[in-house]
Design goal:
Layout: H1 2-15, H2 18-44, E1 50-51, E2 61-64, E3 67-70, E4 75-79, E5 84-88, E6 98-105, H3 108-121, H4 130-137, E7 140-143, H5 150-186, H6 195-201, E8 206-208, E9 213-215, E10 219-222, E11 228-231, E12 235-245, E13 249-259, E14 264-271, H7 275-291, E15 296-297, H8 301-316
Parallel strand pairs: 1-2, 5-7, 12-15
Antiparallel strand pairs: 2-6, 3-4, 4-5, 6-7, 8-9, 9-10, 10-11, 12-13, 13-14
Length: about 325
């Protein structure tokens, strides 16, 4: 039965507007995957470094230096006679005159560890804390171990979070939708096979597009707020409820159905601000009067009494 239910859900979602929800879900996921692939491609693109200056802070640059001194296993200090630079490389230096890398903000903890060695190479410079060292090395160090297009990759990753977030929100809505309204599909056609319904659903007799209702030869199909299908024979009572806006005027119209198990289900919620909605609901109720004369239509104390009596009679059996 589960496979049949899933098949029916897909059929309803394809036929009704919830298909658009799935299109958006797939679209945002496709955009996210495309951006992740772009990040991977950027990681392998080779670019030529440009000369470093203050305007090229986030680009793949090079510096030409006179000497390079090793501060620890991976950090170096280099100078060109005018400026002193911090340099980071996980591999042995291939050149001691031209260093390439991406400028990155230096970590204060790292600077603090490098101060003693730095003072050893530059005894004439007074360096006792981080602020004094920054005066000579600046706020950046050159990282040779990262991808040349690191910041471009980071920008793509940040922007890829937006479609991922949209996809996640839509997915949560879909999962909540399925969990909340699964009962509507478990009991859609009471003790019947779905083959007849599937055949009829391919060619509906009438479609009320404004309220998302399809009338088949033997079934009613609803899709707002959830997919719901019921055989005409299974409908005991059908009526509308109206929700007031600030107790002044009608806001929503809700269609309620009692099936032959006396289970109450709100199968349709439509705004009453639309005259088209009101017209189609009225047409549907009039149509039910002809195609299912045995169904109680409209809310009244008499109809309520009849339904309660039928339920008592059933429970007594």
């Amino acid at each position: 039965m589960k496979k049949q239910i899933k098949k029916l859900r897909r059929l309803i979602e394809k036929k009704m507007p919830y298909h658009f929800h799935n299109i958006l879900l797939n679209l945002f996921f496709f955009i996210f995957v495309t951006m992740i692939i772009s990040v991977i491609i950027l990681n392998f693109i080779k670019v030529e470094p440009i000369a470093f200056d203050e305007n090229n802070t986030f680009k793949y640059t090079y510096i030409e230096v006179d000497q390079v001194q090793k501060l620890d296993n991976q950090y170096y200090v280099a100078d060109d006679g005018t400026y002193i630079y911090l340099y980071y490389s996980e591999e042995p230096l291939s050149s001691t005159t031209k260093l390439t890398g991406v400028p990155r903000l230096v970590n204060e903890d790292t600077l603090e560890k490098l101060i003693p060695t730095f003072q050893k190479y530059y005894p004439n410079l007074k360096v006792s804390d981080i602020n004094e060292m920054i005066k000579y090395t600046g706020n950046y160090y050159f990282d040779h171990s990262v991808a040349p297009l690191l910041y471009d990759m980071q920008i793509v990753i940040v922007f890829s979070c937006l479609p991922l977030l949209c996809w996640f929100i839509l997915l949560c809505i879909k999962l909540y939708y399925r969990k909340t309204y699964l009962y509507s599909l478990k009991n859609i056609i009471l003790n019947k096979e779905l083959s007849q319904f599937n055949q009829e659903f391919k060619s509906p007799e009438i479609i009320y597009d404004s309220i998302d209702v399809a009338v088949l030869s033997n079934y009613l199909v609803f899709n707002h707020p959830s997919p719901y299908v019921i055989d005409f024979y299974d409908i005991i009572w059908m009526y509308t409820e109206k929700k007031k806006f600030f107790f002044l005027f009608d806001q929503d119209i809700t269609l309620v159905i009692y099936d032959r198990n006396f289970k109450k289900t709100r199968v349709l919620i439509a705004t009453s601000f639309s005259s088209r909605n009101k017209k189609q609901i009225k047409e549907l109720m009039s149509l039910m009067l002809h195609i299912s004369p045995r169904t109680l239509l409209g809310y009244s104390q008499e109809n309520k009494r009849i339904v309660n009596q039928l339920k008592k009679d059933k429970d007594a059996l």
